Amino acid sequence: MKLFTIALKELKLIKTQKISLMLIFFFPIITILAIGIAFGNVNIFTGTGTGFSEVEIGILVPENNDQSQELISSLRQYERKAGEEKGLIKLIQFGSEAALEEAMNKRDIKIGIIVGKINKTDESVDLELIYDNSTLLETQVTLFVTETILNEVSYRKATQILKEMIYNIETIKTTVSQEINTIQNFINQLESTKNTLDNLEYKVNAIDLTSIKSQLNEFDSYYVDAKNTISNTRNEIYQAQSNLSNYKTKIQNERNKLVSYRDQLQSLKTQLTSIRNNANSLGVPAYLINQIISAENQIDSLIYEMSQTINELDQAVIDIDTTQTKLSQTLNDLTKVGSQLDSANKSVQSFKTTINSMESTLNEIKSMVSETKASRESILS
Q1: Are the CB atoms for 112 and 131 separated by under 8 Å?
Q2: C-alpha separations of 154 from 52, 161, 290, 308, 362 in Å
Q3: What SS3 state is found at 247?
């Protein structure tokens, strides 16, 4: 009884305060209920209902390009599909910022997204988020749903940078939470939140990030091995190019020597032919003429073989040049593969950060659920 009396006094004191301490005390419950509304089928003000209505999101795309269209396509995946009663969001496109602001003022939409310029370096999209704060709790929930969707879109577009926008959303959520100045009807809803809290606790405990983290760690090992393989292959190609250049130089030198030798033999044959043609006038004996003819035939054979060898050496130089071109193209391909691998690694590391943040958030939610359930039982007892 004494404890009950003290509690009543505290409640009366809280009601007289301009800034209710109850808001601070039950803020974890409000946050969890917001998550429950977003993903569950319970209306905290009636205890019944069909769940959270579609979040009407207005979007403005000043520059129509592949990236902006991809963003819109990703967001439309959360709209109502055939056979479904409703979707998570309803996306409405606007042609100007004035039209978007007019729809916001008329409360036709709760959230507005203005797509900024595309960062050509990493193809990320700058987004400006505007919101209607006339109904604070509903706005907080729609902001949470919008943040969740954009985070998933960000994961699908690995190189897309949304950290600044997420930080702004967190700031907005904090601001909206600070602006909530009344929870007079909240005590009456504590009993109806039990199923929501139990369901949320079950869903949070069912999320297992261990396998995802294990796969990401396996990618780290693959990334290191792949980078080493690329580096070793590049070194081997550089060595092969150097060896081919040396071979080409040697082949060209040998070819030039053969050409010189062939020219000398050709000159010698010309002299022998001249002697043979003038053999009678010079008084050359018949046996010498036969030897000259034999020497001419041997020289012709050598000249032919040298010409064949020269042609083969010329073809070898062509083959070396072709191989060098292919090796250069392979180096370019390896450079592209390395860049793609680095880009993939950057996306994976960013996703690992998101997973770690998600894991931390889930742990906080688990703790928050336990504390909220304990607080609820304490208040109702």
Answers
A1: yes
A2: 24, 7, 92, 65, 19
A3: helix
Q: Say which CATH architecture domain 2-135 belongs to.
A: 3-Layer(aba) Sandwich (3.40)
Measure the CA–CA gap between 89 and 128, rounded to whole angstroms: 18
Which letter does DSSP use for residue 114 in this model? E
On whether the 207-380 domain is CATH 3.40.50.620, my answer is no
| Least confident window among 32-36, 98-102, 108-112, 127-131 | 32-36
With contact defined as beta carbons under 8 Å apart, do 292 and 275 qualify?
A: yes
Query: 333-343 pLDDT, tens per residue?
Result: 888 888 888 88
- pLDDT digits over 273-310, tens only? 888 888 777 777 778 878 888 888 898 888 899 889 88
Dihedral angle, C-alpha 192, 196, 201, 203, nearest 10 ° = 170
Q: What is the rounded distance in angstroms from the CA atom of residue 143 to the CA atom of residue 174?
A: 11
Distance (Å, whole) CA 40 – CA 202 = 12
pTM of the model: 0.37
Domain residue limits, the chain: 2-135, 207-380
Tokens linked to 214:
């294990």
Extended beta strands in 86-205, E state: 89-94, 111-118, 125-131
Residue 357 identity (one-letter amino acid): S
- Provide the β-strand partners of residue 111: 57, 131
Q: How big is the chain, counted in residues?
A: 381
